[in-house]
Design goal:
The protein has 448 residues and is α/β, with parallel strands linked by helices. It folds into 2 domains: 102 residues, no CATH class; 241 residues, Bacterial extracellular solute-binding protein, family 7 (D-Maltodextrin-Binding Protein, domain 2), CATH 3.40.190.170. The protein is built from 18 helices and 11 strands. Strands 4-3-5-10-6 form a 5-stranded mixed sheet. Helix 9 runs antiparallel to helix 18 and helix 10 crosses helix 11. The longest helix has 24 residues. The two termini are 46 Å apart.
């Protein structure tokens, strides 16, 4: 706000013209049958909620698409939207006097664009920072709809509209590209699957070891605490600005057998088929993945007598067709592995944001962002509950199996400790701190 006030005062003295203070969005109701002028801090869903009581952006967007353009996430200050009234059958009535507008809007497209451009210029002059945020998953998937979209909208709210997010012109869904997209400046922000950073950021791989994860919220929060207490004291993440971590729920052991998984099987080395959950299901949909898994299973059974073993979270197992009435899951409370994501902005993008707004964003990031991973836990637990109702066979990993998994984890921990010590981090102390945090958050496993 200080930067904004200074620019307004400078304009007054330089031009001799009285400059009105910017008008911010309010939260009061909007009467249908009127027009609404977009203000700073507005997003389409909230305008729609004020008019119709629901936060879906569709009614207003569909009616004003020629004004807004192809991206419903982008509305600019000064844009005038029509707010039609709703008919009894759920359709929306034409606005008074809009019949002519409707027939001429396409012809007037050339005049609409300059108006939108002028509004965009006003947004720039008002210190609004608009950032392109890339998302690897399809819009309905829980990491977007339940976590990231809510978080980005909250950033816009706490900065009173001065920081806004839009989709890039082309969304890149390749998990391996995300960090480079941000650090090279192709997009301003993204969430990065940390397992894709194993070479460049080995210290983030701790939750990928057996018994070093758990629920999504439990893992993301513990990883952030480790970052704050130890990792952030080094230069391990200088390439971008780290806002926080998100986690998916832990993977368990699935196979078509009633026989308990035994320690002697060395099961940690037996993930027969790496189901492309984060590189397929969330973009291509479950039907395609189910067909791929079914084909693989048929080919496997033709030449093998042992039951195939899979490591998956409950939701993933159900979605890709691993689970059926013949399948047993051996649940490992701290997981065979737990995928995590880093939510990042480029350093250049972060530098565009005022100090006050950086502080506001930081206040809802970090551990607060990690806590949003609870949405993924709820999503996964919903699948688990449904499978339990349909006779999912569940066994718990016994002590012998847990000891075997711990031996496997210790091998990975030696490598992690080597990297930590090389950065000046007391590895044993840091790992003990992380494990203590996991255990302190055991209650975040919803199905306990």
């Amino acid at each position: 706000m200080k930067n904004l006030a200074k620019s307004l005062i400078a304009s007054v003295f330089a031009t001799g013209v009285t400059v009105a203070a910017p008008v911010f969005a309010s939260s009061g109701p909007i009467e249908c049958g009127t027009t609404y002028t977009v203000k700073r801090g507005d997003v389409l869903g909230r305008i729609n909620a004020r008019a119709y009581g629901k936060s879906s952006f569709r009614p207003l967007y569909n009616h004003n698409k020629l004004i807004i353009g192809s991206n419903p996430n982008v509305i600019v200050v000064g844009m005038t939207l029509e707010v039609p009234c709703k008919n009894s059958d759920g359709t929306f009535a034409a606005m008074p006097g809009t019949a002519v507008v409707a027939t001429t809007q396409v012809a007037q497209a050339d005049t609409v664009a300059p108006q939108a451009s002028e509004a965009a210029d006003e947004a720039v002059q008002s210190d609004v920072v608009v950032l392109a945020f890339n998302k690897t998953s399809a819009p309905p998937f829980v990491i977007n709809s339940g976590i990231i979209d809510v978080y980005l909208n909250e950033i816009t709210e706490v900065t009173e509209g001065r920081v806004q997010f839009v989709d890039p012109d082309v969304m890149n869904r390749d998990q391996a590209d995300q960090f480079e997209l941000v650090t090279s400046g192709q997009v301003d922000g993204a969430y990065v699957l940390n397992s894709k950073l194993s070479a460049s950021h080995p210290l983030l791989q701790l939750p990928m070891l057996p018994l070093n994860g758990g629920s999504a919220e439990q893992t993301a929060t513990s990883l952030w605490r480790l970052h704050e207490e130890y990792l952030s004291k080094t230069d391990y993440f200088d390439d971008a600005h780290l806002l926080g971590f998100i986690a998916a729920p832990a993977a368990h052991i699935w196979r078509e057998s009633d026989t308990p998984v035994l320690a002697s099987e060395n099961v940690a080395a037996r993930n027969m088929y790496a189901v492309p959950y984060f590189e397929g299901l969330d973009v291509r949909g479950p039907k395609v993945l189910q067909e791929e898994v079914s084909t693989w299973m048929a080919d496997y059974k033709e030449s093998n007598t042992a039951d195939p073993t899979f490591f998956l979270a409950h939701g993933a197992a159900r979605a890709v067709g691993i689970w059926n009435e013949n399948v047993t899951v051996t649940e490992v409370d701290y997981g065979l592995y737990t995928p995590t994501f880093s939510v990042i902005l480029s350093n250049d993008a972060w530098a565009k944001i005022s100090d006050a707004d950086q502080e506001a964003i930081t206040s809802i990031s970090g551990e607060a962002l990690s806590a949003r991973s609870a949405s993924w836990d709820a999503f996964d637990n919903g699948f688990r509950s449904d499978m339990v109702r349909n006779n999912l066979k569940i066994v718990k990993a016994d002590d012998a199996l847990l000891d075997n998994l711990q031996e496997y984890a210790d091998q990975g921990l030696e490598l992690w400790s080597m990297y930590a010590n090389a950065k000046g981090i007391p590895a044993d102390e840091a790992h003990s701190f992380y494990q203590h945090s996991l255990k302190s958050l055991e209650d975040r496993l919803l199905f306990r």
